[in-house]
Amino acid sequence: MPLTFYNKPGLVAYVTCGDPDLVTTRAIVLSAIEAGADVIELGVPFSDPVADGPVIQRASERALKQRTSLAEVLTLAAEIREHAQSTGLIVFSYLNPILRLGLGKFCKVARAAGVDGALVTDLPVEEAREYLGAMQAHDLAPVFLAAPTSPDARLKRIAAASRGFVYAVSRTGVTGQRQQLADDACKLVTRLRRVTKLPVALGFGISNAEQFAQVGEFADAGVVGSAIVETIERNPGREAAAVGEFVRKLLARDRQPSASGPLQTT
Amino acid sequence: MGTVPRTTRVKVPSLAAKGAAGMGYAHTKFEKNALSSSNGRTRAGQPASARTGAPAPREPGRFGVYGGRYVPETLMAALDELEREYAKARRDPKFQKRLDELLRTFAGRPTPLFFARRLTEKLGGAKIYLKREDLLHTGAHKINNCLGQGLLVERMGKHRVIAETGAGQHGVATATVCALLGFECVVYMGTEDMRRQELNVFRMRLLGAEVRGVDSGSRTLKDAINEAMRDWVTNVRTTHYLLGSVLGAHPYPTVVRDFHRVIGREARAQILKAESKLPSVLIACVGGGSNSIGMFYDFLDDKKVRLIGVEAGGRGDALGDHAARFRGGSPGVLQGTYSYVLQDSTGQIALTHSVSAGLDYPSVGPEHAALRDAGRAEYVPASDAEALEATTLLARTEGIIPALESAHAVAEAVKRAPKMRNSEVMIVNISGRGDKDIGILRENLKID
């Protein structure tokens, strides 16, 4: 059961694969896992990342300079899986690279690589019918985004379509760090709790230990992306070590084992 | 249908179908045709077997298999709101009356249909008529859509408007409507386009809009849309995204098309009055495809009228040298919609090139993709050089300097008219005027 949060709050760590290159990404991910990340989001770089702020845009550009492809990300996933059996692995992508590879092929290769699930940023539940079928056929967990602007009826559909966990977006906006977590975040998690028993991971804007601990007060896990990617950007030559230090600092406050045992997520 | 490109018929998820019930306007004659043929396509040139088929499945925002709504979750509620508000506005006679009045008294509709006598004589063949959208206020057809969406913004009670622009014509039209209706206006524009359409940048600023340069990617229209979407994701509660073409997530391709249908509606009545018959051919340029779909739409049921869309052939056939999506592209998802996209083998979006900023875009409106697959419309490229040559030709035979975008349509007329009979008629849409292109024309034409 790799898609399981053993601690509260769990840490979902995002990296853009291929930034600065795939060999380094592998070292970064293993370092984050060793430092305590529960789930890794393997970001697939895309030429037109409309949902991302400047930090992840820059990372995508660097990764695309290396011509990093979705197929290579899946190969990387298989390598990581060899070294980390109990860590959740989620592919985080825009839709077009997946369509280009082929939905069926994507799911098949991802499953074989030991991937647990996927999150497709620009695929809302309405358009996800075939995607859900293919994901289910290959026993992969589809994770969907829930936004502060999603009305309750949409939250219900999102929760019903999701497996593993629901990714709650803490505020309107693109990815990136913020000084404060908005009120939006807490309200959204509360609304989600009414419609699902799945764990809720909160993302967008979490960058330090204080915010991460705060997330634990109402959500099951926190997603940290831009802050990790920025750490990579700022530490050329020692990316993996720097990310390890960053994650350890982030988790410095004591985490509790999940109240009722590990949160079953599927 | 879910996510996957298929040539097979779209299956309708039950919830989506439910949502479609209130969306009568989305189910147009063409969409029904495309969907009710057995495999979602009709053979080229063959009328769709529409009328005989079973009731068409109803899925909002789909044109055959194309279209849809591929955006981050944060935007879904705003798209729903726009869809609802537009459905209400369409049924509201007051809305239509106000829009018609603004089109007439502010924008300058109807635009003339002009017989190009000297061009016709010079080319020898079909009689060529020009639909003069270039005579509209702000210099292009874009104002039709901006006035329509502007009135929708008023209805939704929002006060901030954002837009993208390529050639700057949509940006100028948006800035104009925001000044007219009293909205705050921010226009995103690639820095490459700001350089080549300098005059329009100044016009937007003069009209009180803030122009934000976008320095990522190819620094053109596509990148401006990315940045506008990021703004919208952030400020969605207070802001309307006034999208300028038949692109993006549902309901934009339908909304923008409907606001431009007036072009074809007028042209059809005008040509019947002038010639007592329908034209054999319509020609319009296709960037996103708003002027062309507006021109084509009211002729879709006139099966004998050939519809020709002209894409930017740029400077060559290699990926990156043109923006001819139907020549070098394949189905994919970009910026909210499923359509033909210029992309590499791993699904990354390709860079494009055109001398005309308004055509320099790697995807195309989803309804055009469906019209193309159904064989109802044809799409051909015209190169940079052909467009430049056509500009000079039209200027010197008719005293009309077309926008470089529209010059692509003229270039196709130059190739096609001589092969047609004298008794045949063609209409070329002059979607905009060339004042904005003076800098590029000077660089390229060497006539100083």
What features would you describe in this structure?
- The complex is a heterodimer of chains A (266) and B (448).
- Chain A has 266 residues and is of the alpha/beta class.
- Chain A has a domain of 182 residues: TIM Barrel, CATH 3.20.20.70.
- Helices cover 44% and strands 16% of the residues of chain A.
- Chain A contains eleven helices and eleven strands.
- A nine-stranded parallel beta sheet of chain A has the order 6-5-4-3-2-10-9-8-7. In chain A, strands 1-11 form a two-stranded antiparallel sheet.
- In chain A, helix 1 links the parallel strand 2 and strand 3.
- The mean pLDDT of chain A is 93.
- By secondary structure, chain B is an alpha/beta fold.
- Chain B is built from 17 helices and 14 strands.
- A six-stranded mixed beta sheet of chain B has the order 3-4-14-9-10-13, with helices on both faces.
- In chain B, strand 5, helix 7 and strand 6 form a beta-alpha-beta unit.
- Chain B is globular and about 55 Å long.
- Classes of the chains: A alpha/beta (266), B alpha/beta (448).
As a whole number of angstroms, the C-alpha radius of gyration of chain A is: 17 Å
Q: Percentage of helical residues of chain B?
A: 40-55%
In total, how many beta strands of chain A? 11
CATH class of the domain at 10-143 and 206-253 in chain A: Alpha Beta
How confident overall, as mean pLDDT of chain A? Answer: 93
Provide the low-confidence segments of chain B as ranges.
1-57
Assembly state: heterodimer
Class based on secondary structure composition and strand pairing of chain B? alpha/beta
Largest sheet of chain A: 9 strands, parallel
Q: Tally the beta strands of chain B.
A: 14
- Euclidean distance between termini CA atoms of chain A: 8 Å
The strand order across the widest sheet of chain A is 6-5-4-3-2-10-9-8-7
Dominant shape of chain B: globular
For the largest beta sheet of chain B, what order do the strands appear in spatially?
3-4-14-9-10-13
Gross geometry of chain A: globular
Strand content of chain A: 15-25%
| CATH homolog superfamily of the domain at 10-143 and 206-253 in chain A | Aldolase class I
CA radius of gyration of chain B is 20 Å
Tell me the distance between the termini of chain B. 56 Å
What count of helical segments of chain A does DSSP give? 11
Detail the poorly predicted runs of chain A: none
